[in-house]
Design goal:
Blueprint: H1 15-27, E1 32-36, H2 39-50, E2 56-60, H3 64-67, H4 72-75, E3 80-84, E4 86-87, E5 90-91, H5 93-99, E6 110-116, H6 129-141, E7 145-149, H7 153-160, H8 164-167, E8 173-177, E9 188-192, H9 194-206, H10 215-227, H11 232-248, E10 262-266, H12 274-283, E11 295-299, H13 306-322
Helix pairs in contact: 1-10, 2-9, 11-13
The chain binds pyridoxal-5'-phosphate.
Length: 325
């Protein structure tokens, strides 16, 4: 990162950012890409580029854009929201069809469908190419654009064993994060065709997201894209082994949701309090996020190896055994 050639990114003069953007566009089979500060910014820029205030956007009801991006779609983009129930993160097609709002003087017309792949709240589950084709058929028929919140799109591609470009072929734009499984300290990319990215660049500037010598951070992103994608398989295998171990420890897990690098479960009633479990694990050097109610999310990543997984399972077993009843 310290050796990266730098320039003024706002003037499109930073060679390292340009290289990262080209690489991102190429990986996802699109014409162009834009380096942004975060996944949240990438999604927001996509929303305000695709749609005008008063337009409608549709998304699955547990989408990250809706739950965890501080209402930017309403507060900044001024969009109307239509939510659609989903199954493993993919919107139910009959509900989606019904939720479309057509053209007309009176109507907040649907301009955009946002998908999330992998889908966080569903357990980091994947939307596959057939599902993409199905939804794209409907979107095209109604002149609606598709944006993918692909914070972890490469996890999905690896899990589905499909080329990333093939997976996002039907999408008009994709946001993906460097700062998650790809292991970078900073940044996301918004990817799409040249015209879309040129408009998005102006919107990013409006949000204060134009940068200066950003090649410092982009340099890590290049390593993320060149070296960190294939190894995501290890994280997925580790998550699977961890889930099986936790099932042995008496925790109920829907294994259909364990598709990538996360394991979600509820701490069984009548055992230890979820927050105490997290605290006890912390004392054993196992760091997991704070529980939401009884729900806990465990994430595997590049600094967790197979031995760590055995250690974590053992710690879970010990703590849960001691806290029966
Ligand atoms: C699915 C999804 N989209 C978007 C984001 C936002 O990314 P960031 O934290 O970089 O803003 C996240 C972050 O966890 C996410 O999980």
């Amino acid at each position: 990162m310290l050796d990266a050639p730098l320039g003024d990114e706002q003037n499109e003069e930073d060679p390292t950012v340009i290289k990262l953007q080209e690489l991102a566009a190429q990986k996802l089979g699109k014409e162009d890409a834009l380096f942004v500060a975060s996944g949240t910014m990438g999604n927001l820029v996509a929303l305000i580029t695709h749609a005008q205030p008063g337009d409608s956007v549709m998304m699955e009801e547990e989408s990250h854009i809706l739950r965890c991006e501080t209402g930017g779609l309403a507060a900044v983009a001024g969009l109307m929201l239509k939510t659609v129930p989903g199954k493993l993160g993919f919107p139910k097609m009959d509900c989606l069809r019904k939720a479309i709002i057509g053209e007309g003087r009176l109507f907040p017309t649907t301009r955009l469908i946002c998908l999330e792949n992998t889908h966080n709240a569903a357990g980091e589950t994947c939307i596959d190419t057939e599902q993409m084709e199905e939804i794209s058929g409907i979107a095209k028929k109604h002149g609606i654009k598709i944006h993918i919140d692909g914070a972890r799109i490469f996890n999905a591609a690896i899990a589905l064993d499909v080329e990333p470009a093939e997976l996002v072929k039907e999408a008009d734009s994709i946001q993906f994060c460097l700062s998650k499984g790809l292991g970078c300290p900073f940044g996301s990319l918004l990817v799409g065709d040249k015209d879309f990215i040129s408009k998005a660049r102006k919107k990013r500037q409006m949000l204060g997201g134009g940068m200066r010598q950003a090649g410092l951070m982009a340099a890590a992103g290049i390593i993320g894209l060149e070296k960190m994608i294939d190894r995501l398989k290890e994280d997925h295998n580790n998550a699977h082994i961890l889930a099986e171990g936790l099932v042995e420890a008496g925790i109920k897990i829907n294994m259909r949701t364990v598709q990538t690098n996360m394991v979600f479960f509820e701490v069984p009633e009548g055992k230890i309090k979820p927050i105490d479990l997290v605290e006890r694990l912390k004392k054993e050097n196992v760091l997991i996020g704070d529980p939401k109610g009884r729900k806990i999310r465990v994430v595997t990543h590049k600094d967790i190896n197979r031995d760590d997984i055995s250690y974590i399972i053992e710690k879970f077993k010990n703590i849960l055994d001691k806290n029966y009843n």
